Amino acid sequence: MAAPEEEPPAEPQLRDTPDDICLEAAANAIALHPARELLAAGDVDGDVYLYSYCCVQGENRQLWSSGHHLKSCRDVAFSRDGQRLLTVAKDKAVHVLAVEDGRLETRIAKAHGTALNCVLPVDQHLLATGDDNGELKVWDLRKGGAVLEARQHEEYISAMAVDGAGKILLTASGDGTMGVFNIKRRRFELLSEPQSGDLTSVVLLKRGKKVACGSSEGTIYLFNWNGFGATSDRFSLRAESVDCMVPITESIVCTGSLDGVIRAVNILPNRVLGCVGQHLGEPIEQLAVAPGGQLLASCAHDQKVKFWDISSLGSMVVDEYRKKKKRGGPLKALSSKAAGSGEDFFADLREEQEATAEAATGSDSDDSD
């Protein structure tokens, strides 16, 4: 009797984006490796995970986990060379983990007097941390101590950014101000005038000539480089909030909001380009961009990390003189997985169910949702 022929192995199924990564607890923070397809996540239980991801269905893998933090992990960031993972938590500790195996290389216990909120690698040896009381510290890992300590903000530090030369560090704070610190000279420079609402994010744009800060009230504030005292422009997204923001190109950022919608926004001219994706009804905690700018990752309260195809954003050109769309229309879908925006999402589903001729996600939008 002839043996049955073996069936050939199934062809791997390629996707536009990697599968969602499902976590055991909600992630506060995610980061994407600067050169490899690796994602780090820190969750509300204090655990830190490293995953490999790819666009082949079912091929995402958890590589290791770390439970060294005693309380909620607030932020994670890869070092510039990608060999280490920096993490901070509510337990006031800074951890430096080896990316290859998750081994704890350095622990700075009680790094601050209160819960840590964010961490930023400055260069190969320096890193900055910000806490819930508005204190900033810059650490030199070679010396094992802080080389700059400053408490200029009255509220928590939500985010930080540094210029390409590693000289000027910018901080966004819940007191509505942006802080400017000179790392090379180890000193505080100035605070901006306070804005309405908490400043939640800070990014550099236009080849470092512009700085954009997101706010809890849904406004993006713009500053000129070396004109940090007062804003040069402001742009209301008609969104519930701007809770996080990452640069995609020199002019385009993606923002995450309480309504769970990820918006692509062009800066100068100021336009909301559309919806990249959404965690339906779940506030978005953090966004991260993959090397090459083709993929965006997001985490929210739904205990999922999702990936979005943002390859179309790099070629988008916004005409300054183009007529703006009437306010109040639905957001344009900018990826195949972007179903719609906030209050328009359910309207989109109803229209699809009723087989109407035009779905809401196909509508155009310029500066509002």
TrEMBL record:
Cell compartment(s), UniProt: Nucleus, Nucleolus
Pfam family, one: WDR55
Parts forming coiled coils: none
Ranges occupied by WD repeats: 123-149, 284-318
Keywords: Nucleus, Repeat, rRNA processing, WD repeat
GO BP, one annotated term: rRNA processing
Entry-linked Gene3D superfamilies: YVTN repeat-like/Quinoprotein amine dehydrogenase
Record InterPro entries: WD40/YVTN_repeat-like_dom_sf (IPR015943), WD40_repeat_CS (IPR019775), WD40_repeat_dom_sf (IPR036322), WD40_rpt (IPR001680), WDR55 (IPR017422), WDR55/POC1 (IPR050505)
PANTHER family: WD REPEAT-CONTAINING PROTEIN 55
Annotated function: Nucleolar protein that acts as a modulator of rRNA synthesis. Plays a central role during organogenesis.
Protein name: WD repeat-containing protein 55
Organism encoding this protein: Gallus gallus
Phylogenetic lineage: Eukaryota, Metazoa, Chordata, Craniata, Vertebrata
Gene name per UniProt: WDR55
